[in-house]
Request: fold
Amino acid sequence: MSKIAIVGGGIAGLTAAVELAAAGNRVLIIEKGSEIGGNVESYGCKAVDICTKCNLCLVDDIINDVSSSKNIEILYRTSINDFRGKTGDYTLGIETDGELYSVDNLEYIVLATGFTKWSELETGTPEAFKDNRILWASELEESIKNRIDRENGQDVIDLGYSPESVVFIQCNGSRNMQEKARYCSRICCGYNYRMARVLKHYYPEVDINMFYMDIQEGGFIQDISFSDLAENDIGCINCKPVRIEKNDNNLILHYENQLTGKTESIATDLIVLSEGVHANEVNEKWADLFNLQIDDYGFLMPIESEEQTGIFLAGTVKGPKDIAGTISDSKNIAYRIKNARNLSKSGG
Reply:
């Protein structure tokens, strides 16, 4: 029975753990926090009159599988301080609640420590100023997660008021050289579209517009297109606002009309800022400790074949992915580890 350490208790780490444990391996999940789940713990289900396939239910299933597995052990509030050994026989020096330990005889290590949201970085800003009418996407997610069903089916999302208009600003924290993120974060279009659907469900008369630089039309399971937005009465404006102001009643967004080249403005009750996926600062530590590369944006890459080193990367630690993409990637990592073990046993 192999002993495998997985660093990170988010979607990627949990998915890999379930797959590897089901194959008979002993799996140790090393989680820095007090609970598992990672970033998606704050996400809310986007179901309205239909399921919008936000994939959170898949995460619930994975967490239940982790909890019921006899082959998975979880160390909470634990950090890694040291790494040594040779391929197939590694040792990690760890610290749990101030106590130092060693975890020996590790055949494989999976790094799955996820990403940082744009709002969590010092350079992340709410575009203009702080105002309770300007929300990060994650703040709206919290409201959606905590929504309460009431008999009349209305006004169940507690925003403190009932907005008559909402503007989503896409590509916030990505597709921008100044934000050190020229890439697409892959998650913003799908999840903001779903949140807009939720708002439309509970506030049918609300006027919703999305400022965007590029709509990611294709997606896993759920396709998003301009026709989908139009069918749900969600407007699209192809640019990012150049300035945001406020008065007693509204927030005013000034933007350049891409067709006329003239500056126009739109008033709204609520602004929702998308949060691009950024690399975790801990990636620099992992690069030094485990002899890995860091790409231009701070995400991790292997220098040698992962099958040769026994150090694998799973999920968003190596680049932006949505929930479905992260699950798929992590299952693939588990498959590759199982295949590498079989080849090693056969002498291949």
Summary: The first helix runs from residue 11 to 22. The chain has two domains: 3-46+56-114+280-346, 117-277. The radius of gyration is 22 Å.
